[in-house]
Design goal:
The protein is built from six helices and 49 strands. It has 723 residues and is mainly beta.
């Protein structure tokens, strides 16, 4: 190769987007040692041609080029050969995205495609038009077993992946056939593992028909799903069985489910239990699912077949805006409508063959799903190419913030994004959308003491589908609005959807975070959070965890008119939810207190006068608040055996501050939650305790307190948001 060509490809090294170096290859394909083979593809719309370029590989002979309609197409046809490092295909398939090229020399093969160039290595596209029905299922299940996405090690991997299915054509489906529950071998189910996402690229769920989906728990031989976290599925039809056997940080949205035997695993023994979960905007057509063995569940705007019988669940089951939900009883709380909601945006392929993002519209007092068999629903369609910056693993905070400043929305492809400064969302209607449980991670640098994502007090911001990690001490992980935020966003609220914040579990150094999330803005809607100070992790736990993984509060709400759906908050060291704003609403709350408080003296609130900290604290200054469907469960295992919590929940005795359907119980350990709310309701020492409603009750109002909140003085000088 000439020096001129070498120089040219040195420039390409900097400029080109890389294709995958593992996943797009069959077992017979390989890469030359550890050398990265750079490749690029350019589409000429006027000529409808595709130009391929690559860096040299192999030792001798021409490069042979074959083309298939998809990455795993059954047939690749020869389109030419060349001794050069470039090739022009003047007669590609009609859709520019249906051209995957294998370039081979000696025993080395690389794949070049527009989709891989745009979306990177961790997004896998399937096209039934060119592939066998079993192709996608076989590859996904191979990853599940090969890279440990189903076992204990998968819980802490930094691997992230999303599996996207193109719409079916000519009556085809992605169903390989099978029978029985999705957990059985005969079902031929797709097994979805940690940090994995399934997405349909059609306009409506029925555009992509899958067979069966199973999320296999890795504890107790499959009977324990309490650590089956971090996976999601959206915008597909499940034709046979949907066995969504999960707990926290698992999202199932915009689904058409034709049949389902159970909503849990039926492997292992009959003592199955889980700590889930969340499903929304879904339609079950033929059978009512069963959540048996789940401690709690939140279901929103979902349609079930006729009936009102119970569908399982032990303590706290909330059904909001659903059709044919179970009848109300101690554990079940049907709520007739969803007062305000905007569904999560999603990627799809439009009629013109181009990738777009659908941004659903706000809806009020909704019942049932947002879509129909033929209509994707109300909302805005945005061109991916012109409106969005597609971030790939390796992109930095500098690149993401520059794209935001330039007016782009951000689509985070699956990956582990290492930041040295927070992502700064400082314009109205900006969108951050993650796929494949993309992780925004603060790296342990001295300068980075601020947080993962900071959003200004602007209309219409959407942050969705992201996991925030902290490898460093910070003020917050997520902050919405500055401390003096006072704008009225009622016409265009802020949406936070499928948000996970994780404190500890993955880092080796000591970290201290004041609050995992603080919402200062008004008119914010949260649709599914898991805020988690990790009770276990990849490093040793025990007594060291209390001082190594420090975080006072999971969530502080200082803004007014904040509405939250499906709020999971666990193991923080002081008030896990602290609510200071007016007219707040929460529909479903799940909590476990910190396992690891070493003794009562180190874990007492209200000036040391009260044992422990309430899981959900509404400040005495608040005049109006309403929350329904609340569970807090004692698991005091990492203590001296004498640690208790006086109250599960604390609120002012005010007639316009009301909590409904509260439940406390003890799962493990010797300590107890001694009262449900404000000194009333009884102790977990004698079993499950419930209070149906508390509003201006006879209990003891908590002592007045001054709360130490983060302030602007805690921000590093190099950050300026108000620009």
């Amino acid at each position: 190769m000439s020096k001129k060509i070498i120089s040219l490809f040195a420039v390409f090294t900097f400029m080109m987007l890389l294709c995958s170096f593992v996943s797009p290859y069959s077992a017979s394909e390989k890469i030359e040692g550890n050398k990265k083979i750079h490749r690029k593809i350019v589409y000429n719309k006027k000529k409808h041609s595709l130009t391929l370029t690559w860096s040299a590989f192999g030792t001798s002979g021409n490069y042979a080029i074959t083309r298939g309609g998809s990455r795993l197409a059954s047939d690749f046809v020869s389109v030419g050969s060349t001794s050069k490092l470039t090739f022009i295909d003047n007669k590609p398939n009609t859709s520019k995205y249906e051209n995957y090229y294998k370039v081979s020399r000696n025993d080395i093969t690389i794949i070049i495609s527009l989709e891989n160039q745009i979306f990177g290595d961790n997004m896998y596209f399937y096209d039934r038009k060119y592939e066998k029905a079993e192709t996608a299922r076989n590859e996904i299940n191979s990853q599940f077993s090969r890279i440990g996405l189903g076992g204990a090690n998968g819980e802490w991997t930094t691997k992230r992946q999303a599996y996207y299915f193109k719409p079916n054509v000519n009556g085809q489906t992605y169903d390989v056939g099978g029978s029985g529950s999705a957990s059985s071998a005969e079902a031929n189910a797709i097994e979805l593992g940690f940090y994995s996402h399934i997405g349909g690229l059609g306009k409506v769920p029925s555009d992509v028909k899958l067979g069966a989906i199973f999320t296999k728990p890795h504890l107790s031989g499959g009977a324990n799903a309490t650590c089956t976290f971090w996976r999601s599925v959206e915008n597909v039809e499940v034709m046979r069985d949907f066995s969504w056997t999960v707990s926290q940080s698992t999202s199932a949205r915009r689904l058409l489910i034709e049949s389902t035997s159970k909503y849990i695993s039926d492997i292992g023994n009959t003592n199955f239990w889980g700590s889930g979960g969340f499903i929304a905007d879904a339609h079950y057509t033929t059978s009512r699912p069963n959540w048996g063995g789940q401690q709690q569940w939140y279901t929103r705007n979902t349609v079930f077949p006729s009936g009102s019988g119970a569908m399982g669940g032990s303590y706290n089951m909330v059904w909001q805006g659903c059709v044919n939900s179970p009848q109300a009883d101690e554990a079940n709380s049907p709520i007739s409508t969803t007062p305000i909601i905007r569904e999560k945006p999603f990627l799809f392929i439009d009629n013109d063959g181009e990738y777009k993002v659908f941004v659903p519209a706000w809806q009020k007092d909704r019942v049932g799903v947002s879509w129909s068999a033929t209509d994707m629903g109300k909302g805005e369609i945005q061109d991916l190419d012109t409106k969005w910056y597609v971030a790939k693993e390796g992109d930095t905070d500098v690149e993401v913030n520059a794209a935001l400043k330039a007016g782009k929305n951000i689509f985070f492809t699956p990956g582990h994004y290492a930041l040295n400064a927070p992502i700064q969302v400082n314009r109205k209607d900006a969108i951050l959308l993650g796929a494949g449980i993309a992780s925004v991670t603060l790296e342990p640098t001295e300068k980075n003491t601020w947080g993962c994502i900071y959003a200004d007090d602007k209309d219409g911001i959407i942050i969705a589908g992201l996991l925030m990690d902290s490898f460093n001490s910070t003020t917050y992980q997520v902050r919405i609005g500055n401390e003096r935020a006072n704008a009225d966003h009622i016409a265009d609220p802020i949406l936070l959807s499928d948000i996970t914040c994780r404190v500890g579990g993955v880092q080796s150094k000591n970290i201290q975070i004041q609050a995992s999330m603080q919402i200062n803005s008004n008119n914010v809607v949260g649709d599914h959070f898991w805020l988690w100070r990790a009770d276990h992790g990849s490093q040793k736990g025990g007594d060291a965890r209390w001082t190594r993984d420090r975080c006072k509060n999971g969530l502080i709400v200082a803004g007014n008119d904040v509405t939250l759906y499906a709020l999971f908050v666990e193991h923080f060291q002081e008030y896990e939810v602290l609510w200071l704003g007016e007219r707040g609403r929460t529909f479903f709350f799940q909590n476990e207190p910190p396992y690891d408080a070493p003794n009562q003296a180190s874990w007492s609130s209200q000036g040391g006068r009260v044992d422990g900290y309430a899981a959900f604290k509404v400040a005495n200054s608040v005049k109006e608040h309403h929350t329904i469907g609340m569970g807090s469960y004692a698991v005091f295992t990492g203590t001296d055996g004498n640690v208790n919590k006086k109250n599960g929940f604390e609120i002012p005795n005010n007639p316009n501050v009301k909590l409904e359907k509260m439940c406390i119980t003890r799962f493990a350990g010797s300590g107890n939650i001694q009262n449900v709310i404000n000194g009333t309701g009884g102790s977990t020492a004698t079993g499950v305790k419930r209070v149906a409603v508390y509003s201006n009750g006879e209990g003891t109002q908590p002592f007045d307190e001054e709360f130490t909140l983060p302030n602007r003085e805690s921000y590093p000088a190099y950050i300026s948001m108000e620009k």
